[in-house]
Every structure is written in C-alpha cells, then in structure tokens.
Design brief:
The protein is mainly β and 777 residues long. It has a single domain, classed as Beta Barrel (Maltoporin, Chain A). 4% of the residues lie in helices and 58% in strands. It has a 22-stranded antiparallel β-barrel. Strands 3-9-10-7-8 form a 5-stranded mixed beta sheet. The two termini are 42 Å apart.
Length: 777
Amino acid sequence: MALAYALLPEGASAQAANAPDGGTIQDIVVTARRTSESLQKTPISITALNAQTLEKINVNQVDKVGQVAPNVVINQQSGALSAASINIRGIGQTDPSFALDTAVGIYLDGVYVARSAGSIFDLVDLERIEVLRGPQGTLFGRNTTGGAIQLISKKPADVMGFTVKGGYGTRNNWFARGRFDTGKLGNSPFSASFVYYHRDRDGYFDNTLTPRSKDPGSLHVNAYMASLRGDFGPFQLNYSYDYDRRTGANPFFQTSALSDVALAYYSQSESLGGAKLQYSPDKRLKSGQQQSAYGDFYTSKTISQGHNLTMSYEASPAFTIKSITGYRKLYLFNALALSGNGDLKGLVLNPTTFEVSVQSVTPYNGYNGPQKQWQVSQELQLLGTIGDFKYVVGAYYFNEHVSEDNHQSLTFLTNISQTSTPFYVGINLEPEAKYHARSRSYAAFGQLSWRPQALDEKLELTGGIRYTKDHKQLTLQNTSFGIPDASNGSDTVSFDNVSFLGSVSYQFSPTTLAYAKISTGYKSGGFNPRAPGLTDAQGKFIGLNSFKPEKLTSYEIGAKTDLFDRHLRINVAAFYSKYNDLQVPQFASGSAGASTLLVNAGKADFKGVELEVTAIPVRGLTLTGSLGYTDPKYKQFLFLNPANNMISDISNSARFPNVAKFNSYVAAEYDFEPTRYGQFTVRGSYAYRSHVYFYPNDTVNVFNKSVDSPATNSVEARVSLTDIPLGQRLKGEISVFGENLLNEDQVLYGVDFGGLGFGGKIYGEPRRFGVEAKLSF
C-alpha cells in the first residue's frame, strides 16, 4: 500500500525554511475521505502536491504527476492531444475509447471526469493535487480499482488581488497566465475570480511538409476558469466554469518495426515516384515527412468544458449536508497521424477490376472525429461528528452519452502470385468505426469512523460500504466504403456491486501513525466498441461483444512517522491486491482496421512496497526521495488463439501493459537567507522509471518488444529569485529552469500494427530550457 507521499512536505519546504522554529516539515489538509483532515493522520495512501510544489516541478497537465509519484505511470497516447493512459499500482486502461471505462478515476473539484481520452487538459490554477492509491470503491465508487486523482482548484479570495505569470523557452514555448480576485463584492457575501491561460509551442519533429507551428508536437492552448464563492456563514456556495481548447499536431509517430513483406513493399516507394520510406528501429528521427490525415488536415483539436456547483450547509458539528452538481462536455477531432511517413507510393490492386496500378499507399492513417461526450452527475452527502463517531452517508447519480466516428485509411498487403515466388500488392481500404453509447449509474454509500475518547482518540476503527447499479447501452454503426456492416446493432447490459472497506489505525505518538486496511473495488463491465457485433450462421445480428466487471480485494499496511522534531519524515507501506476477471485490452489490426480485444483475462495478484523520505538536515535545505515497486503476476490468463481456435492459459508468458516495476524520485532544494532583493532558491531533481511494455500478449502483438519503452531517466533543475519587493503589496519572482537535461529519447507510447506489418512509437520532448516571471499583488 502506498503511504502519504513525502513529496508533499517538499511543497511546504519554502514555508518550512522560513518558519520561526528553524524549518520543520509542514503538514497539509486533504479531503481524501470527503472531510478535511491532516495528511499525516489520514490512514490512506495519498500523494498530495500543493500549488507551491506544482509550480516548482512545472506541472501544467496531469501526466507530469507520473514522474514524481511512486507506483504511478501516466503516458500520453499516440493519435490524440489529450488522451492519457493512467496506471496506479499496475492497474489502468490503455484504450482511450469513449465507451470503455478507466481504472483510475479523475475528479475535478469533486466531479468525476469520465473519459481518459480527455484527461490531459491544462491545469489552469490549482490549489493542490491528491493522488489516492489503491481501490477507492467506498467513497469514490466504480472505476477506481487502481486509485483516484483529485484536482482541487483555487477558490476566490476574500481580498482583491491579481497575479500575472509568463514564460518563454525552447522551441518558442511561451505562456501567459493571469488571475484576478475581486475580493468581497461590496457588502455582499460573494467573491469571484477569473483566470486566463494561453500557451504556444512549436513542434519538436521537423515535418518538411508543414511550418513549425504545425510540426508534430506543436501545441496551442486557450483556457480559462470563472469562479464564484458565496459565504453565508453556515451555508457555503461555490460555482465554477472551466474551458480548455487545445489544438496542435500529435507527436511524430516513428516507424520502428516492419515485417519483411512490409519492408520490401514500402521500400519501393521512392522508385515509384513516392516519398522515401522512413524507418528507424532504434535511433530517434528528428526530421522528415509526416503525411496528413486527410487533405491538409495535420492538426487535432480538443475542447473540454464543465460547470460545477457545490453547496453545503452546516446545521451543527453533528450534521452537514453537501451537494455536488456537475455537467461536463468533451469534443475531440484527432488527426491520427500514424503512418510515420510521407506520401508513399506502391502497387495497388483494384478488387473490382483486378487491375494493378501505382497509387498512394499508407500503412495506417485517418482521423478520429468527431468524438463527443457529455455527462451529468449529482452527489449528495450527509456528514458530521457525534460523540466518538464520524460519519459520511451519501447517494450518487451519473448519466453519460458518448459517440465516436473513426475514419481509417490503410493499405492491406496480399500475395497475388500463382507461383511459389510471392508477389505482394496493396489493397487500399477505408473502414469506418462508428458508435454511440449511454451509461447510467446509481449508488448509495456510507462510512463510519470510531475514535474512543477513552483511548485519547489514538485508536480509529473505520468501516464503509457502497452499493452501485450500472446500466450500459451501445449501438454500432460501422461501415466499409459507406456500406453498413452486417454485425451492426444495439445491445444493453446491467451490473451491480457491493464494495466495502475496513481499516484500523493507531496514533502511537503525536508524530507516529500505523494502520492496516482491507478494501474492495469494482470496475464496470460493458461492451467493446472496437470489436464487431456477433452474428449467427446466417449473418444476422445477435448481440455485441461484452465483458464482465473487474473486481479486486486489496490488503494494505503502513506507517507515517515524523522524527527529530519534524526534521525527518519516513513513510513506508506495503500492499497486496487480488483481482478477479481482470480486464485486459489486446490491441489488434488487420483489413478491418484497428480493433481492441477486451477480455476478462482471469486472475492476477499485485504486491508492492513504497518508501518515501523527507529531511531538513540544516536550515534551508530540503531533501526528498521516494521509491515505488510493483510486482504483478497472472494467476490465470485464458487466451483464444485465432490461428487454431484453441483456448490456452498464457499466464506464465503474458505481460502487464503500461506497468513499471520500479520508479523513484529524488530532489534537493536549498533556500538561501532572504535579502532585501528577495529569496534565492536552487533545486535539482532526478526521476527514474523502469522498462514498460504496452501490450500483454506477444502472440497477438508480434512487435511488442519493438514498440516498448526502455527505462527513462529525467533530470531537471530550477533557479529562482522569489519575494522580490517591487512596491506596496507588489512582489515579483523570476525563475530559470531546464528539463530532460540528459536529452534522453524518452518513449511516450508505442503502437503495434502487427496485422498490417508495422509498429511504431512516439517520443517525448527533447531537452528544453525556459525562463518564467511572475507578479503578484
């Protein structure tokens, strides 16, 4: 089990260095159990990063959190600006389909953000991030078998003020952000805030077919948030609206694997008047050609927006009622850009006339759009303290509609020779994968904690339970050259689940807490929109490809300690989780395009440890370190081999997708003594993540080892001058930073199109430097 993440004190290190007690490790208040409580006294595994820390480690979107949090892997996926694969303790979801649920829930101010395809959005102005590791089935509900990530935005301040921040860096990477707080509006109980954020970046692969502003890796962002807070004493109201518009070109998809047939076929392109084949199995390409998805369509677009209304009324310490109402909307239009090449030419067979001619060919390309999603959610909580007991009781409702239209273009290679010497030609195909789906979920939950005053509230016993009912509906509308597939149709399914939690903790001293916990989790079942529907012998539709819910039981133990008068913090934890019907996606490709075989693989066990340390050995110096280790093992993985239609158990050879066995993080920060010019701070950090595979089965994904991600090493540094006095109430700040200082070629994601004869990967941004300035009033 993960423990409260020690990086949090680092976020408070600046405060600690200036504290009158000589610089001690500070605490923070979190809401991981739906109530406000001290991080170090909460018997849950949490990583908490406050606003100060988020600025120091330059977090502007959620995937950066995976670099610093133990046993967390977050990767941007290929073919989209905003799709992420999020994995905590070995559990996640690698398919960004709108109809497939995630195993890690993301919450923005208490509202569930349902789609991983839109989970990379700009974090405009956050108060903190909380990463909850392990199943959160009682208080957060379904689809949190891996854990949950809470994003908490800053609320309007009581006094008027403004903050302006801007920066410029490598590849014309510049941004500007402004925040204005109105303070109390006249004599009313209301205050408001407005935040605007803009970012631009040129690409980091030189596509000779486009200007720099449209090169792969380019990004253009406009985002804002408006918030209103009403303080009526016992009644509190918070409303916010957030909007994020991202346009740009996806990172370059580099071909890193080719079958012998595909290599021979596409190598002819240049001699046939087409572009030269770009193929590099090991070395990263820095320039070349990237074919457009369609016409001059090179760029992708994501628009994410949402309304949040949170109201609470505290009648007494024994009773508070709270309501969280959310409405969110997501729109994506993605240029897939997965050819890894320019305009290739090849010999193409016309399947109608059987004539062979030279035409443009592509291993795989197209565009996915529009993708649309909207959701409505309502949560009602009753909470309070009665004597030795603290309780939370609630009800939850969720309603979602999604649709997706995936336009694919590919060249399928086939042998037309009538002799023993093969002769391969291509057949250009344009399959369209289209569907719409609806989900509804209802839940009731409760959690009760007992801290007997007879034991000075040192002992805490907690129990929780949640009942969930899910309904899902999916309609397939796939076509090929405009002709509807015979396997199209609609189907519905329902599931229910009871999750529970039990924990015990004991406060041995004011600075030492030990705890143990058992909890269960549930990830909803449903339909796989990437697979065709089921038909009978006459080709009549009889149903959709469905899968069962994923369930687990997790056991955790841990301790949180502050030593030497809060100058040393050591947190250690261990976890063991048992999964049944584990949902494992198996990506496949062929003449019908890209598809996913989502299977309930069987049983799997996960065990691991985490160690986190923070130290302030001398005044001004803060050292932090963490180590995460996850050891997963399949107990059963039943695989239907399409070659012989035989079922076999491949648990000894199957891999865990997007799982890093080790990750670690170390940082050192020194705050010099304040001067009349401000306070000077230097900081350096190193993050390590071990090797990652992206697919579970080498039989289905023959290029799995060629599109993997080797171990990564990330070195960063930052030098800042803060609290620069510029006048009455006006302060300045300036920072210089560097990221990926080793200039390592870090793989973000890999895709195995083995059925089409190729595979490739996308890389992260190379070494970069930047300068930032900030004014606060």
